[in-house]
Write a structure and sequence with these properties.
alpha/beta, five-stranded parallel sheet, 5 helices, 5 strands, 22% strand, UspA, Universal_stress_UspA, UspA domain-containing protein, Rossmann-like_a/b/a_fold
């Protein structure tokens, strides 16, 4: 009986903490493990929604298109950096999938976990203290409580 493919998702962004979590995942969870699919998830922030006056509206289409292009460029840059780490760690035999979402990171991450039926979610963390985490919130804390899979939170040394 053939074993089902295991899906491990790593949420990546432009921070070094997420790239460290990806490296950790590859070396500790994926290396020498058969039937693994690595899903790289990048979440773009939601577009700004403000009430604009008439003067702003004239220029808003240009601004929105520049912001959309910047978002696409940033997503591609992050994914290329993540794939470079994978190649450096000799994971060319692992099947990889790129996923780009848009919205509040914690909600998008949990939604993609459920949609793709991910087995393990790997996240980097800022390593904030209690007070900062209480005021700013924590994507990793939220996902640890709400994601419908095992969650590994990797703290950057």
């Amino acid at each position: 009986m053939e074993r089902k493919e295991r899906k491990i998702m790593v949420a990546v962004d432009e921070r070094q903490e997420s790239m460290f979590a990806l490296s950790w995942c590859i070396t500790k969870l994926i290396s020498d493990t058969p039937n693994v699919k690595l899903v790289l998830l990048y979440v773009k922030p939601p577009p700004p929604t403000h009430s604009f006056n008439a003067a702003w509206h004239i220029f808003s289409r240009d601004v929105v298109s520049v912001m959309e292009k910047h978002g696409k460029d940033l997503a591609n840059s992050v994914m290329e950096s993540a794939e470079a780490i994978c190649k450096k760690l000799n994971t060319t035999t692992i099947e990889m999938e790129r996923v780009v979402g848009c919205g509040d990171a914690k909600d998008v991450i949990c939604s993609v976990v459920q949609k793709l039926e991910v087995d393990t979610l790997v996240l980097g963390t800022h390593g904030y203290g209690f007070l900062k985490r209480a005021f700013l919130g924590s994507v990793s804390d939220y996902c640890a409580r709400h994601a419908k899979c095992a969650v590994v939170i990797v703290k950057h040394p």
